[in-house]
Amino acid sequence: MPGDVLVMGAVAYDPKVVTIWAGFRAWLADAGLPFDFVLYSNYERQVEDLVAGSLDAAWNSPLAWVRAERLAAARGRRVRSAVMRDTDQDLTSVVVVRADSGIGAVAELSGRTVGTGAVDSPQATLLPLSFLRGQGLDTADVTVRRFDVGVGLHGDHVGGERDAARALMAGEVDAACMIDGNHLLFTQEGVLPAGATRVLAQTPVFDHCTMAIVDTAPPGLADRFVELLLSMSYGDPVVRPLLDLEGLRQWRVGRTSGFGPLSTAVDESGFYGPDGSVLALGYRP
């Protein structure tokens, strides 16, 4: 019966999403919480269903959070950021150049080509381009080459960032944008050979994914869901493999203080309207 089970949405950006949430579902059931999840192919549909009340909760990307908050407000509803991974807080993105490029300042990117991730990637497109504008670079004087891999997944698929990194080493772009953790990952993978690149610029910190809960969710079930997630221990042999797959050691209380830079980037680029409408030209999740 509706209201007897807490229903959460998650985007299937990778097959491991099924393993993670099926495992959490069993763990939550053992703890007495009736819980189920629905998988989505993209974040836009998930956000719309959350605000419509078809879902009680949604494991949202940061861009999905920005849209959910705007869409909910426009419809007289409210969403809250309930929990986040410890690895979602205080992240940065970097603008990387080849070590031998001779580019020493952001202003020197004028007239050059900058590689980014997918059109809807917060960390590899929206945030770094906003940061470069904030540093005084007129992005109208820059050729932005997007690598649209996994459009609709809000950058969860790192293929766009990886392709931008490859283009940097191939000399097809003069700089590439990526989250700082992926700069390290691509170096470990050999996509960016050790010592072959350097960080030209680094954004201020921002937050990433969050569990959004809509105000139509059954309050008792929603509160218990949050309580149980926060109680998960990395020392628990049942949940530890699932936490590893999801990329965290501990759930933390959610916050909204880290989404301001992305909201600004969304407005600058005209990606969403103030009411959460999708405005980005040619965006087809």
UniProtKB/TrEMBL annotation:
Protein name as it appears in the record: ABC-type phosphate/phosphonate transport system substrate-binding protein
